[in-house]
Amino acid sequence: MELIDAIILGIVQGLTEFLPVSSSGHLEIGKALLGAEALPQDSLLFTVVLHFATALSTLVVFRKDVLEILRGLFSFQWNEETKFSLKIVISMIPAALIGIFMIDHIEVFFDGAIMIVGLMLIITAILLYLADKARTTEKAVTYRSAFIIGLAQAVALLPGISRSGATISTAVLLGVDKSKSARFSFLMVVPLILGKVAKDIIDGKITYSGDDSLAMGVGFIAAFLAGLAACTWMIKLVRQSKLTYFSIYCLIVGSIAVAWGIWG
């Protein structure tokens, strides 16, 4: 694997994990543009490495929140931190169930199905536009909204549906404060990423030949740094109601992908 390809895919993953434009969809498009040979032999491991890098960048950006949650949990009291953690757990249920029982069916879509990616990006564009036009509130995430946001996260397992876009948009459309929506969206994905890594290791799906160590290391760094920048930037954009720009972008890229799928 060329180092430049690893850097490109790392930056794409880091940016699109947080920016509402679908990391999985863009990775599929990136693979199609760069060619199958652009992937290392251990392609699943490379994908896991990139996702782990973005999970780490989330923990760095929200380090104060994470420490407060951990302190609250270890106080063993029914406090706000414990309630927030329970909401995170509730939000994980839909995606976790799909990951356990339906992941083989989902993985079918990760095989160069560019037209499907395009259609899902167009759906993401619609969600972002609706969320950007929603009125501003100060509501917090409830247990009910946490589960519904979790359903949106489960749907976002499809390539082209932005995870952050779907979860933030759903939260905002449910009346949750925009800043709180972004915070919840970014924190709720960390346990899922770490759980997915653990499951892949336990199931023996991850193999490593050792031939692409440098490429994976470079890709990890690129994804981590891009994730730091994108996560910080996205929080500001959501607060300032500027998701329409990403809606237009997803609509354009989605339309191109659909056209490519038909005529390419």
Describe this structure in words.
The protein has one domain. It is built from twelve helices and no strands. The longest helix is centred in the last third of the chain and has 27 residues, at 213-239. The model is unreliable at 37-41 (pLDDT under 50). The chain has 264 residues and is mostly helical. It has helices at 3-18, 23-34, 43-61, 63-73, 80-101, 103-106, 114-132, 143-155, 163-173, 178-202, 213-239, 244-263.
Primary descriptors:
single chain; mainly alpha; globular; 75% helix; 264 residues
* Separation of the first and last Cα atoms: 25 Å
Largest sheet: none
* Poorly predicted segments: 37-41
Radius of gyration based on Cα positions: 18 Å
Tell me the helix content: over 70%
List the helices and strands and how they pair.
Layout: H1 3-18, H2 23-34, H3 43-61, H4 63-73, H5 80-101, H6 103-106, H7 114-132, H8 143-155, H9 163-173, H10 178-202, H11 213-239, H12 244-263
Helix pairs in contact: 1-2, 1-3, 1-11, 2-7, 3-10, 3-11, 4-5, 5-8, 5-10, 7-9, 7-12, 8-9, 9-10, 10-11
Summed up:
This protein has helices at residues 3-18, 23-34, 43-61, 63-73, 80-101, 103-106, 114-132, 143-155, 163-173, 178-202, 213-239, 244-263.
